[in-house]
## 1
Amino acid sequence: MECECCNNLVLNDKYTTSTLTLTLCPDCHSLLQEVFNIGKVGNIAGCDVVDGMVKRGTCVRVMRQGRVKHKGTLKTLRNVKQNVEFIASGAECGIQVAGFQDFEKDDYLECFEL
């Protein structure tokens, strides 16, 4: 069973009451450089991909000052005003996270695939 974007894979043994939780390492880190407010769409995080690859639809953890600010799903991923499926390390992109608008400069976004 997967927890919805909590970066943990929870395994339940149907024969006992034991539960095993595995913590997954992030596939990608992005540094938020600027926040863009796009009218009806909301806030978009303008990010530099530091390492790994950002993929649309993955789970995202927004980190601020070493603490988890939000966990959600990557809703939109754009590069130069075009929707893209992925962005590789070293590139810039615009990211919208489902259910989250409170981005601040220097937030880190960690992406996971469960």
## 2
Amino acid sequence: MPIPYRVVERLFKGTKRDKNGCWIPKLPRLKNGYSVLYWHDRSGVDRTLTAAHGMARVIYREGEPLNEFEVPHHTCRNRACVNPLHLVVLLDWDHRGVHKVLSRMSQRKAAA
């Protein structure tokens, strides 16, 4: 389903930039820190829930949707961020590998 313009406006309206260049939207967040956006289709029947960072990446790719194997990855490590320059598309398998490496690095840092 294409993303309606009114929804794109909501995504970026009131977005704040932090000191790291992250764009933090004024949207609800899940417990895991990801910003989310709900919208209804024009009929008001179908409700869609979308991760805000995924939507930002699709917009940056000029509307080309991510396929079932692609996931947006935050290079800034801020799950609420919707800055398209902080989002890269990785294959799901690669994305999991990146997070395993980052987790190991954090554990080593904490142990030192």
## 3
Amino acid sequence: MEGNMDGTFKIDATVADRVREIVALHTQRDLNDVALTDTISDLGLDSLGVVELIFALEETFEISMPFNANHPDQGTFAMSTLGSLVEAVEGVIAAQ
């Protein structure tokens, strides 16, 4: 992830695209209806859906996300929007 002068972030398109595909699959939505600005609640994911999504991301990218299903609010990464989740995945990938 790379910061731009206007305060926005450039997200690795391949990771973002793959995360969007996984979310579309798990939420049974058309890919065009899944945006990086969507919140978890916009996507209709409940707590079990979030856990399943995290597992799918870990499996797809062969990573281990710092996520505790018992305390999802206390994770070390933001999940406020799909874009923030993409940034977290990119961070974990980069740290490997």
## 4
Amino acid sequence: MGHTNIYYGTLAGVYDCGFAYWPYQQDMQEQGVGLDEVEMKHFVIGHQDETILMWPDAFTMNDGWVYTIANKGNEFLYGELDFNGPDSNFRIIRVHMDDLSYLA
């Protein structure tokens, strides 16, 4: 969660693999309510890449950058994860989003 956005992963079949965010501050302002009553009306695709963001997982932030761990959880679930192949099964992705952590 950032100062202005909440980040979440998107999966193939719904949207392309990647992550999106909900500008909750915008929705709170438009609806005139607090965080406990706001409804999600807007979302924005932050980054998409089905090659490296097959299964975006945990998110964290630092100095305007969003970091996510991406893995091939979908292949693991079906017993198709290849630990001997040339491709990485786990990645750390960094994308500049110009947002700060809610802890900052």
